[in-house]
Amino acid sequence: MAAQPVVISAAVEGIVDEAVVRRLIASVGGQAGPVYGKNGKSALRTQLNGFNNAARHAPWMVLVDLNGEQDCAPLLRASWLPSPARLLCFRVAVRQVEAWLIADGEALSEYAGVARSQIPKDPERLRNAKVAMVDVARRSRRAAIRRDMVPRQGSGRPVGPAYTSRLIEYAETRWRPAVAAQRSESLRRAIAGLERLIGTSA
Hints:
Elements: E1 7-12, H1 15-27, E2 31-37, H2 41-54, E3 60-65, H3 73-80, E4 88-93, H4 97-102, H5 105-112, H6 129-138, H7 143-149, H8 163-173, H9 177-180, H10 185-201
Parallel strand pairs: 1-2, 1-3, 3-4
Helix pairs in contact: 1-8
């Protein structure tokens, strides 16, 4: 009888992160369980000890954006949770999860209808990957992408009205974590952490 996939619960900042985490867990052969949080970074931090306690008994992943809070991911992890449980994969996207999505340049180029040369080649060096993602959409040949992802003039909003749903669609249907990891060290480490977690839990 085939072995059952390891079920990994998760906690994230928002619903785009949820789509990314589900895709990551599936990409390493696991099965995503319940995904908690989704109320922003501050709320996630207040609940972190509870998630860590749960990870003493079952596999968990927590994903948070670096987003300028610390100089690097290890400093953020150490300040948030100095003693992670054995079954907790606590990872930090440098600098935002959009950088992980941009890192699969070929897939993003096709999805957004943008020349490959217009996709940032080193997404972890971007000061603000969300702004960069909107700029990619702004160059799209497809009116629907521009309409959905780029903020309307005078709206005062940083992103378009369907920015989030577009990113979720892209993450679920086009984005290839293993390819993106070749251009994102923090993503590569997240995948390696999940693989270790599955190896420990199987």
